[in-house]
Amino acid sequence: MKLRRVYVRGVGAITPLGATWPLSVAALAEGKSAIKPVTHFDVCNFPCTVAAAIPERFTQFSDRRLALAHAAAHEAWDAAGVSSNPEKTGIFLGAESGRASLRTVFALAQAAGGGSTFNHQQFGINARPLASWIDASLASPAAVTSALAREFDVAGPAETISLACASGAAAIAEGARAIRLGLCDVAICGGVGADVDPLMLAGFGQVGALSARGISCPFDVYRDGFVVGEGAAIAILASEQGSATVEVAGEGRTLDGHHLTAPDPEGKGAIRSMQAALQAANIQAVDYIQAHGTSTPLNDAVEAMAIRNVFGKHLDRMHISSIKGALGHWIAGAGAIGFLCAIEAVTKGLVLPTANLLHPDPACGLPLVTGKAIQKEVETALINSFAFGGANCSLVVKRCA
Amino acid sequence: MNQSRRPVFVSGAAAVSAFGFEWRGIGAALKEGRVSFSHSSQLADSHPSILASEVPAIPVSIDAANAKAQKLMSRAAHLATIAVQQALADAHWEDNREEIGFYAGVGASGGSMVELTEMLRASIVEHQFSLARFGSAGLAACNPLFAFQLMNNFTLCHGAILAGVSGPNSAFYSRGNGTVAALFEASHAIAEGDCERALAGGADSAVHAVTWAELKREGYARNGFVPGEGAALLALSASADNALAIVEHCAFGNSLTSDRNDLDKLLMNIDITEIHSVIIAPWGTPARQTLRALTETHFPQASVLNINEFLGDALAATPALAWVTALDLLQTEEINKCLILNAGIDGGIGAVLLGKTSRHANIMEHGQ
User: Fold this and answer.
1) Residues 82 through 121 of chain A touching chain B, CB cutoff 8 Å
2) What is the pLDDT of residues B328-358, one digit of tens each?
3) ipTM
4) Is the Cβ of A374 closer than 8 Å to some Cβ of chain B?
5) Burial of B94 (0-12, 13-18, 19+ CB in 10 A)
6) Is A212 touching B (CB cutoff 8 A)?
7) Which of the residue ranges A100-114, B57-71, B266-280 would you say has the lowest mean pLDDT?
8) B191: which of A25, A190, A362, B47 lies 20 to 30 Å off by Cα?
């Protein structure tokens, strides 16, 4: 069976630095960072008080994830200029659960008595009348996929990948596989993260994953944690090349099988993930890596070690950066925005910098892009996306021959 | 990527359900009409007298998760860890687990009500929920890793970590079809040579105070929906050695926008006249009615079992529980094939055909 090639026909993104991908790229190329103090809710006493948030509230949408994904998907679809039989069009999105609003949290607390004890029986009775305005389906990870499938008349495969920080990249991997196998001709792929909310900041803050300094500076010697960001990034993949100049050449997916919150200290899962993607693409090295680079002490050290292990002497001609210095960590959307950065490098030779990287950690030992973007010929690029829980996904893209 | 396509065999399985921790015997139990429902112990505080299908107390001897690890797990994740261990043991896969893939349909993980209670209780000031109080005392009152109970992929990751499974993987959010997508992807990973072995299945629980409140609100309780829980996995392999069955067909369609993906399309490449045993795994009453109608028109002579009538609705776990039931029937009944149909509230429909290993056709279609 001859597998088909997978072309990247169009991309779209809404980020804290721009309502479209071109606007975002312009700011990213300048080395700007979107990370600011959180002002739309009270972060008093929170372990981390900054984020990379999109200021618009999107009141016309009941679900913030959908608002973001909707914007990115339409931009990508318009850019792609594809047409496809609905039954041969698929959608593959990385998304985690939506978040209950504070109003919901408060209402639930009140339903349980609202006092100093949580009355289970009272909760069972009082939770029911909340039905009129608490819509659980909005919190479903599948809600975004379902809504976009209706909007774009998708009647082919529809999948929601909930793989934490690797969701977006894994969704692109799933879409690419579906096109290779002929299951669909066009795939709407990507991820969305809308986690600048109290529960997420609290949750990640409690485990010590967030930056106490309030700075996302991947691979910096002073890095001390990640900063939550939000946005959506979508790519339209297709079996027909059209005007595309870049293709998805390989994917690798592994599990660390090591620890819930810490990567395998030897980076074995990350190494196997990158190697699998390179092997699938039938190449040994790439020109550029968009690293997972979260700005946590552990991730960046292990990822750097894994990259050195995989690429060795090839690193001399490579460049590496992480977008999380500028846009924070989008969780389920992280791999997808990383994918767009790699596409930008291959199609336009624009290698985006790692914002806030002022003191590269010599222990990481990587050829990092700092300051502003650089121009270089990029034939091939690799994207890393590593998740809490130990799921790893690497993608390889290359210029069409 | 290896471009040759290989048959995919079932080398072992696991089921964690109200019937216990063994997949063998589930088919016979259903055939006998054994029902697992009893008054829920997990919902007793918030919803007294609710009938549910609950997994019995987990014996320490089969529980790979110690007390500390369990505090980081949702109920679904805990059940999944047991299923992973059981499936690996059943397939005798002791070695080279690094290469074993793992694909799972997962639900929205429900955190411990005890933790949630403590967090909310500490966040209330003068009968009002206080965000500032939440940021300090509320957070301090609960397990620091509580957030990880809520991450959907941890249903997959806990089991992988405890068993050392670390091959290709994905976690699919499932209202039924995500679990079929897991089997589909695992089968293709093997068929295309991405891995030699993989686990595929699902784990979930509807027996959770918040989940049940939502299901009740949405009207499921009025329509005979019995909350269930469980985990089930198939151990898939490229090797026919000691195989229990073969995955003859795995397909799922997305009917979100129309009814274009009907059952005929999903079954397009198989001879349905050979199918005399069907198990249905619906998500809620409308899906049950749909699947009942489809089986009556397509398989009027077939024996049809509705797994929900015996094991309740275990959400993302239900299709996988149906697969292992089919696997058991293939071992014990005079049938060559068993078709498992699922349908979910999204309008998705899935079809999996398991056959005895003497049959080598291996057809996998997706969507159509």
Assistant:
1) 86-87, 90, 95-97, 102, 105-106, 108-110, 112, 114-118, 120-121
2) 999 999 999 999 999 987 778 899 999 998 6
3) 0.89
4) no
5) exposed
6) no
7) A100-114
8) A190
